[in-house]
Amino acid sequence: MIKTILISILLSLTLITTAQPGWQWGKRGGSGGSGSGSLANEQVIDMATDRNGNVYVLAVNNPGLANVDGHTGISVRDRLTIASWSCNGSFRWMKNIGGASSSVGRALGVDSADGVYVIGQTVSNNALGYTYFDTDTTLGNTNKRLFLIKYDTTGLYKWLKMPQADTVSTFNESRPLDMSVAPNGDIFWYAFLQPGNYGGGAFTITTPGYYISRFNTSGAYQGLVSLDMATTDGGNTANLNGITNAESGHFSRDHNNGRFYICGQYDKTYGTLAFGSTSINAIGNIGALPIYLSAFNSSGNVLWTKQSAANLYASTRNGRPVIDPQGNIYIGGDVYNGNTFAGHTFTNSLSVHTFPFVISLDASGNYRWASSGKPKDGACAGYSLAYSQNTIGLACYYGGLLKWDTDSITAPLTMSGTAYILLARLNAMTGALISMDSIASQNTLNNYSTAIAGDRKGNFFVGGSFDYRLFPGPDTIAITGGTYDWFVAKFGASQCNCIAPTAHFTAVNSSGNIVNFTYSGSTPYTSLSWNFGDGSPAVSSANPIHTYSSSGNYTVCVTVTNACGSHTYCHALSTGELGIAPMSGFPEISIYPNPVTEEIRIKNIATEMTMEVYTTTGIRVFKTLLQRNQEQVNVSQLSPGIYLIRLINKEGRQGTARFVKQ
Questions:
Q1: Which of 2, 21, 4 is CA-nearest to residue 506?
Q2: Distance between CA atoms of 246 and 354, rounded to whole angstroms?
Q3: Pick from 290, 293, 297: nearest CA to 306
Q4: CA 592 to CA 581: how far, in whole Å?
């Protein structure tokens, strides 16, 4: 057996040496249609960025012909829009989804291999107009509702998956809830699923509940996880199975360790909600909406659950749990004075209004820090969070005077209390406020920030809804008709052609406490600086060898700098982790740990491979496709014992090794 080092990403921060950041540009979209109630609010549903700094937006339109940044859509039935702009605000492309009945978008995600994914549901059983996905494909008369569609980052249609069976009932209440896309293009689809066959018979659901379905970048089904959570309608028959409480929640996956996180707010009028043995509680009047955050392992078992005070209002609005490279979790929203979460009490001595907050926990659910704004004159609500280079961005709206730490900002106050769009930026390590930056508006009645995304350079993109004019940076954007329009605005640096470096390294424990480090990040660079996490002096060589005075856990960081900026990449080092012996046929591949309890980590995969697992009697019990340089494969479903792992590359070359499943 060879001693190896288990490395998990801990921290990634970038410092871009540019001018003071600010609002760079703003764009609008929507239709000329008007509406009331649920049809009145055109808004951005979700956003994401790619490795080149392009931004992608999923938005809902009032019924009517979509118009996005001067580009027209398909028909007066355009309901959903997927649109993209470049780093400098140049329009790239858009796609529109619609039909005679409803279409609902739930989530948008982007991978590192130029894939753009959207999930949602649509009704396509109205002969007046079946659902269309732009000019790419059209559904016929079908009761299938759930959809997963993929485009590439240039807007080229790739595929559409409708996983429900052809025989599904008209009244099937399966619901898409959220999605998390891994860098390699694996899609983790969080949904409430009714009994039935899915994915063309790829899997069968026998019990209604909450599941995470995994698909690869080609749309092929990969696996299913049942989450240990439950809802009931609580006697509210209009809320079948209590789905409404789950629909207000949001989902994220930590792609480094396979954990799942769900946060949201609970309304007791829609029934009960429980994660494992922990019930979410609400006491008193209907306005008591406690928030929660629950962590699951890769098998769907609850690890821990946190919830706010049962008798006070709180909301996470549209915000997903945000996970940084270290595995810390952040949630945000708005609360009332005196509410508590994870042992922290939120306070505001200036008013009785709701106020925005961000709170951070570590991977074990322990409190790290909390930060909140303090409005004086009107309510201030936090809607959504994003992480970018050691900075947390919170998208808000506010009116009147708002104080945060030692800073303050003011917007016109109206009867409704809503006024300007706000981006609050916080240090992800400490929670200290970096800045508050607002987008002014000409009409201060109904402007909301509903989504946010961060890129790799420290920029943030804020999206939302507005009802007259907004002034992001040098731009003026105005509605083109109807009740509302939606918008996207960039905050950050003006430079777009500069490529910031990306730091990375590998480490091998050669003997004892001696570790060989190899820089594997981007080149060329101006300088490197290593911090070995033990208080020793910084080192500037590319491939240093370091001797630790004792065994233990250390956080090692390398910082790379070029003319565009700096990037710091950190890993946790733990000496003493045993790995699988070198594999015959592929000696360069590292496989660990051994024994394994949940996940096998495989490194240095040069090309696409098939992985198979066999019992000692030759029975194959597992098979999957490996498509990236480093993979984490969940084998928790295997019974304890000794197994044979086999890797096969495209040329047919094979390698085998043994491991122990505990």
A1: 4
A2: 23
A3: 293
A4: 9
| Number of other residues whose CB lies within 10 A of the CB of residue 161 | 18
Other CB atoms within 10 A of residue 415 CB: 9
- d(Cα 384, Cα 419) in Å, to the nearest integer? 17
Q: Report yes or no: 550 and 622 within 8 Å, Cβ to Cβ.
A: no
| Cα(343)–Cα(307) distance, integer angstroms | 10
Rounded to whole angstroms, how far apart are CA atoms 17 and 387? 19
Q: What is the residue whose two structure tokens read 């800045």?
A: 435
Q: How does DSSP assign 263-308, residue by residue?
A: EEE--GGG-EEEETTEEP---SSTT---EEEEEE-TTS-EEEEEE-
Q: Which helix H or strand E contains 554, and what residues bound it?
A: strand 553-561
Instruction: Please give the residue that has the higher pLDDT: either 416 or 493.
Output: 493
**CATH class of the region 582-661:** mainly beta
Q: Quick one: CA dihedral 550, 542, 111, 452, positive or negative? A: positive
* Distance (Å, whole) CA 37 – CA 390: 39
Token readout for 442 is: 């000409």
Could you give the count of Cα atoms lying within 13 Å of 459 in the half-sphere of its Cβ?
31
CA distances, 136 to each of 57, 82, 160, 185 (Å): 18, 13, 10, 21
Among 560, 620, 626, 573, CA closest to 222: 626
| DSSP summary character for residue 596 | B
Domain boundaries, the chain: 3-7+500-577, 582-661
Please check whether residue 411 is in contact with residue 356, taking contact to mean a CB–CB distance below 8 angstroms: no
Contact (Cβ atoms closer than 8 angstroms) between residue 353 and residue 416: no
Q: Domain 3-7+500-577 belongs to what architecture?
A: Sandwich (2.60)
Give me the DSSP letters along 518-567. EE-S-SS-SEEEEE-SSSPPPB--SS-EEE-SS-SEEEEEEEEE-SSEEE
DSSP 21: P
What's the CA gap between 300 and 327, in Å, rounded?
18
Structure tokens at 223: 């696996």
Assigned token pair, 162: 């409708």
Q: 208-242, pLDDT tens digit by residue?
A: 999 999 999 999 998 899 999 999 887 666 677 77
One-letter identity of residue 150: K
| pLDDT tens profile 130-155 | 999 999 999 999 999 999 999 999 99
CA 176 to chain centre: 15
Assess whether the region 3-7+500-577 and the region 582-661 belong to the same CATH fold: yes
Mean pLDDT lowest for which of 121-125, 339-343, 435-439, 616-620? 616-620
Note whether 173 and 167 are within 8 A (CB).
no
E strand or H helix that includes residue 79 = strand 78-85
SS3 199: coil
**Can you read off the two tokens belonging to residue 630?**
């480093």
Mean pLDDT of 258-266: 94
Q: How far apart are CA 11 and CA 555, in angstroms?
A: 9
Sign of the dihedral through C-alpha 453, 457, 459, 463: negative
The single residue listed with the structure tokens 């997927």 is 82
Give the pair of three-digit tokens for residue 569.
């990449």
Q: Residue 356 and residue 334: Cα distance in Å, rounded? A: 4
Strand-pairing partners, residue 465, are 448, 486
Tell the residue number behind the tokens 């009409």, with chain if given. 443
